[in-house]
Design goal:
With about 280 residues, the chain is an alpha+beta fold. The chain is built from 6 helices and 14 strands. Strand 1, helix 1 and strand 2 form a beta-alpha-beta unit.
Amino acid sequence: MLIATWNVNSIRIRLSQIIDWINQVNPDILCLQETKVMDDNFPVEPFEQLGYSLEVYGQKSYNGVAIISKIKPENVKKGFNDCNESNQNSEIFLDQKRLISADINGIKIINVYVPNGSSLESNKFEYKINWLNCLSSFLDEQEKKGELICLMGDFNIAPSNLDIHNPKKYEGGIMASEIERNALNNVLKKRFIDSFRIFEQNAGHWSWWDYRNNAFELNKGWRIDHIYISKELKSKLKSCVIDCSPRGNLRPSDHAPVMIELNLNDINEDFFEDEDNFFEI
């Protein structure tokens, strides 16, 4: 099963590019972020014509997430359940459509668009950390159910300095601060594997390039789009790649798709875990 995540930075502007990419890659599941469209206006038909089912959770001009799947998603949830972390209630997050989850082929697919945070001194940064704390509580509830999870999306966090083209310049700032990295680790709690780092542990691999200053042409990027899987799925993980080619399109998204391949033929078997070898951020 091929599972992908992509911040498309407007589904309507990038629709033809997304359809072209689907035709080339043929993913079983594609999770999108920053769709920037109300649910009623989401361009459903082009995906249905390719045999996909859709679950969308969007808003006008900002944010928005979607799950596009060959297998019809079940138990679809939009947004958080009640969140008690730091006395926060999930209602404060309802105005921003940033999380959608569903059960597909024995796996809980969770698609997130983590707030950027703007700057370390802004109210948006506090919102980002509270949102991540709420996500951690949400995952705690899923873990209690014993579910196998694939958590993916645009996290707006570089997990380590390996994930920044110029860590000396950006370390400690937005998307690379200790506070954000600690919040991300609190989400993961060593219960998830960073799929990409199973196969590549060196620097130089990015999923996002700023539109400014010829960042893509100069390969000055960040790795902030991630696919995390439950440790129990490690033996099923066959590959994880970042497909940079769509970033070279005319009027591209500033993000590239990230995708994993899982062998789920025997999803109910007893999973072999080799915890000494998996890579932790």
